[in-house]
Amino acid sequence: MRAVLTMLVVLAAAIGVNLAASSPASAATTTICKSSPVPAGYVIIAEGSSSSCPYAYPNTWTITTPSTTGTTTVCKVSTIPAGYVMLSEGNSTQCPYAWPNTMTIRIPSTSTTTVVCKAGPLPDGYVILAQGNSTQCPYAWPNTWTIRIPSASGTTVVCGVSPVPSGYVVVGTGYSSQCPYSSPNTKSIRRP
What we know:
single chain, mainly beta, three-stranded antiparallel sheet, 1 helix, Ig-like domain-containing protein
C-alpha cells in the first residue's frame, strides 16, 4: 500500500511538472498547430510538421515571445507586436514562402534615434526625423525612417509625414532635405 501511494505521489508530481513545462505562461517558446491562432504577444519563428496536428504538412508554427532587450528574427508571416519595429529582412529555410521571408524586430531605443524599415509599424509615441536608404529593408529607396521619442522639453523638428504624439502640439513648419515631399515638409512640435 505504501509503495502504491508513493508511486501515485511521484506520478502526480511528474504530471504537474509536465503540465508546467508545456504551459505558455512558463515557456517562452512552444510549438502549436497552424489551425490554432497565435496568442497575443507571440511571434512565429519557424514552421514544421506534426502528425498530432490537422491538415497537410507543414502544419505547425514554432512561436516565442520576442526579446525585450535585443533583436528577434521572425518569419514574415508573423505580425509585429505593438511596440516593436522592423530593422531588416532576411532569409531562413525554417520560414515559409520565397526569400526574403524573415524580419528582424526589436523595441526601439527610448533615448536615442533608431533607423527602421518603412515596411514595419511606427510605435505609439515615436516621431519620424528623416528618411533614408538600406539594402536590408524591402521596397524601393527611400525605405527607412529615423525615429525617436520627441523631447519632453523644448522643440523637436519632425518630418511632415510624422504623427504628432498625444500631449504635443505643432508650433511651426519648415523644410528639410532629409524628409519626403516639397516644402513645407517638417513640423516643429513641443508640449504646450
